[in-house]
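Usage example:
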Amino acid sequence: MDVTFKIRRRTPDVPDQQKPYWQEFTLNEVEPTDRVLELLHRIKWEQDGSLSLRRSCAHGVCGSDAMRINGVNRLACKILVRDLGEKIQVEPILGLPVIKDLIVDMKPFFDHYKQVMPFFVNDEPLPADGRERLQTQSDREQFDDSTKCILCACCTTACPSFWANEQYVGPAAIVQAHRFIFDTRDQAGDERLDVLGEPNGVWRCRTIFNCTPACPRDIEVTKAIGEVKLAIRKGSTDGIIQPDAIH
Amino acid sequence: MTSLVLTVRETLRYRGAIGQWSWVLHRLTGVGVALFLALHVIDTSWAVFYPDLYVKAIAAYQSPIFTIGEFGLVFAVVYHAFNGLRIIIFDWNPQLWRHQARAAVAVLLLTCILLAPVFLGMLGHVIDFYVHESAIASHKMLDVVVFSILEQLPFIVGFVAVLAASIVLAALYSLVRGEPGAQSRQLSSSPVEKFWWSFMRVSGIAIVPLVFGHLALMHVIQGVFDITAAQNVAGTLAVNGEIGGVPSAVEFVFHRWSYAAGGVFVWRVYDLFLLVLVVLHGFNGLRYVLTDYTSGHEFARRTAVAFCTVTAAVLLALGAAALFVPLEKKIIEEAMFATAEVYELRGEEIPPELQAYLNKHDE
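Running the assembly step on the lines above writes:
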C-alpha cells in the first residue's frame, strides 16, 4: 500500500525555515505491520536526508522517539501503520522547545524530573545480614506500576496544563516521584511531597486524563497523580492506595 | 499571551479523548458563570441601594438577548455541576479511573435529561411573555435590545476599573516583594494551594443543592419574567404589587428578603450561603484559569491574582451589605418612576394605579 506522510518541519537556526511548515512524502510498498519509525527512516534515507528525528533502541524501551502521530502522543517505534491508516501526520511533542523537525529540547522535562529527587534515599545502615532491604509483596505492588516509566515525555506533553505552563512539574515527574513516595524502604517521601505540593506541583493537574492513554507503557498516570494529591492532603502515604485496587 | 493562543490552538488540534473536551467545557462554563455572577451580585444589590437601577437591570434581563443567555447560563451551571461532581469522584477515588470516560458520557446524558424539562418550563415562561402577554410591542423590540446592551456598559467600565486597580496592586506588590529571584525558587509545599484544592471540591458539593434550588425557583418555577408579575412571590406568603400598587422587581426582592419563618429570614440566610460559596468557588476557579495561562509572565500572573481577589472582595462586600441592610418600604416607591420608564420603553400602556402614583409625585 501507499502511505502519505505529512511532517511538521522546522529549523530554527536557518533564517527562512524558522517558521514551522508541513512537508508531504509518499512511500510505496508499505506493509500494514510496518512501524512509523521504519517509515521515517525510509523517508530520511531514501528521500530527504535533512529530516531530523531522535531514536535509540527502536523497540519501545529507551523512550527517545516520542512524537505526536495523527494528533496523539505515541512512540514512533511502537505504533503500526495498520492502526493509523494511509495518511499519517507526524509532529514534535508539544510544550518543549523544538531544536529541529521532530527533535525537542528535553532539558525542561528532565529539570522537573530532577526536582522530585528520582533516586532511592535511605541513610540507615543495611540490615544485619548486610544484603538487601526486604519488603512484602503487597508493599512492592503499591508502586509497581510507576516503575515502568521510560521518561519518553508522552504524558507530560499531552497535558494541557503543561502546554499552558512549562513550570508545571508534569505527569512524568509525578509518576517518578510516586515510585519512591510509595516505596516503604524510601525515607525522602516527605521532601518529595513538599516539592510536589508547591503551586506548580500536583495542584496544576485538572484531572483531564490526557496523560493516561498517551503512555506507551500503559501506566495508570492520572491514578498515580491522584494518589500523590491525596498523600499531600493527608500528610502521609498511609492507606492512600487501597489494597483491593492492586490487581 | 502566546501561551494562551498556543494552548487554545493546540488543544483543538490534539486528539485527546473525552476527558479533554470535558475539561474545555468545564472551563468555558465556569468562566461564563463567574462573569454572569459578577453582574448578578452587583445588580441584585441595587435592589436595596439603587432601586431604579435594579428595575432597569431586570428589564434588560427580560430582553431577548438575555433570554438566550439565560438558557446558556442554565446549561452552563448544570453541566459544570455534574462534571464537577465527576472530577471530585475521581480525585477522591483515583483507583476508579477506568470509569472516567463512561462517567464523562454520563455527565452529558444527565445534563440533557435534566435540561429537557427545565428548558421546556423556561420556554413556557418565554411564550407566556411574548405570545400571551405581548409584553413588548413589536416596533419597540429593537429599542429594548439596544437598551439591554447599553445597560451593561457600567459593568464593562467596572471590569476595566478593577483591571486597572489590579495592575496597580500587582505593581505595588512587585515593588515590595521584588521579582521572584533565586530565593523564591525554593520549592516548598503550599498550604494555600492545598486548602483551595479541598475547598473547590467541598464547596462544589455544597453549592450543587443550593444553586439547583436557586435556579429552580428563579428560572423554572418563577422565571425572570415573573419577577415583575402580579402573583405570589415563590417561597413567601406575599403577592407582588400589594405594596406598590403595581408589581415591580424591587418589591419582589423586598418580599423575598422580608420573609421570615420562625424568626429567621430564610431567603437572606440562603442567599448569604450561596453568595459566599459561589463567589469564592467562582473566582478561585477563575484564578486557576488565568494563572494557568500567565505563569510565564510574572507581572501578568500577579495582575490576574489581584483581579480575582479584588473582584471577589467587591462582590462579597456588596452582596453581604445588601443582605444585611434593613429593608425599607420606600425602596419600592423609588422604583416606580423606573417601572414607568420600562412600560414606556416596551410600548405598554401605563396602568392607572401607576399613573396615579406618578401624578401624585410629579412635582
